[in-house]
Design brief:
Layout (H helix, E strand, L loop, with lengths): L2 E5 L4 H12 L3 E6 L5 E2 L5 H15 L5 E4 L9 H22 L5 E5 L10 H8 L3 H13 L6 H16 L12 E6 L14 H10 L10 H11 L11 E4 L3 H6 L4
Helix pairs in contact: 1-8, 2-3, 3-5, 3-6, 4-5, 4-6
The protein binds 1,4-dihydronicotinamide adenine dinucleotide.
Length: 256
């Protein structure tokens, strides 16, 4: 049996992924604020350390896969803490256990929002590993009315982190593919508020056009993650795979 740690298993995409993995016989170690095998708050350094320590204890120091699904989409600096530092700390903390497995795999969740305008100082501080500096720059962005740029900042920084580390001796050198799935709009509790009124929905459809099959169910995104962390994926790394109904292709156009 493969042992796979998944964050965000109490809801949405993480929950769907845990279901798919368990159905194929994998052992899932779920991490979330509550209703999980490991209950920990990934927004704080203490919570992240607790999560890493608990997972390492449960897997005996050898882990076949890690998928970081936990995330938030508020217009506050919590997005930076959870979506960037919560994800990268979890992956870095569990990396030695991945390196000890025969066919280790890792994946994270980006977003089409990672292609939207970000706050450059926040992205830079994230990539420099300076959490408090990133949060201070984020607070200033909130004060000047740019809070909505923090989620894109967290996802853009995460995609850039992935591109940097995936080819290093610690990841590629240890045989660990590391990729992201970047969804468009997925029907989960996170996106519920977007459907609160017709105006918001129209704004969202303009921002994230999905000509192929519209909004996605969480299982669709989970299927892509499932393949990325399967033994079949021996050579794909550093990729941000858009599972977005054509949003990225529409917005960025034909130049690749
Ligand atoms: P969701 O809200 O259904 O699930 C997120 C899970 O993360 C929840 O169970 C929540 O408790 C957990 N979580 C949040 N903060 C945490 C913390 N501090 N510590 C531990 N766990 C925490 O959301 P959904 O839609 O499943 O989102 C999963 C990922 O997909 C997120 O990274 C999100 O940014 C991303 N995404 C979602 C999209 C959507 O339309 N739903 C679109 C693009 C990306």
């Amino acid at each position: 049996t493969r042992k796979i740690a998944v964050s965000g298993t109490a809801s949405g995409i993480g929950k769907a992924l845990a279901g798919l993995l368990r159905a194929q016989g994998d052992e899932v170690i779920g991490i979330d604020l509550k209703d999980a095998d490991v209950c920990a708050d990934l927004s704080t350094p203490e919570g992240r350390a607790l999560a890493v320590e608990s997972v390492l204890g449960m897997c005996g120091g050898v882990l076949d896969g890690v998928v970081a699904c936990a995330g938030v989409s508020t217009f506050t600096t919590l997005t930076v803490r959870v979506n960037y530092f919560g994800v990268t700390a979890l992956l870095e903390g569990l990396r030695p256990a991945l390196a000890a497995a025969p066919a280790p795999r890792a994946a994270v969740i980006g977003s089409i929002s990672g292609t939207k305008p970000a706050v450059p100082e926040v992205v830079r501080a994230c990539l420099d590993g300076l959490e408090e500096e990133a949060v201070e720059s984020g607070e200033r962005a909130v004060e000047r009315g740019d809070g909505r740029k923090l989620y894109p900042s967290s996802k853009s920084a995460l995609a850039q982190w992935l591109r940097r580390v995936c080819v290093t001796p610690e990841w590629a050198g240890c045989g660990i593919p590391l990729n992201a799935v970047a969804p468009g709009v997925v029907l989960t509790p996170m996106s519920d508020p977007l459907f609160a009124d017709e105006e918001m929905r129209k704004a969202m459809d303009a921002a994230v056009p999905m000509p192929l099959n519209g909004y996605a169910e969480p299982e669709v995104v989970a299927e892509a993650l499932r393949w990325l962390v399967s033994p079949a994926n021996s050579h794909m790394t550093g990729q941000v795979v858009y599972v977005d109904g054509g949003a990225e292709a529409t917005l960025r156009g034909p130049d690749v």
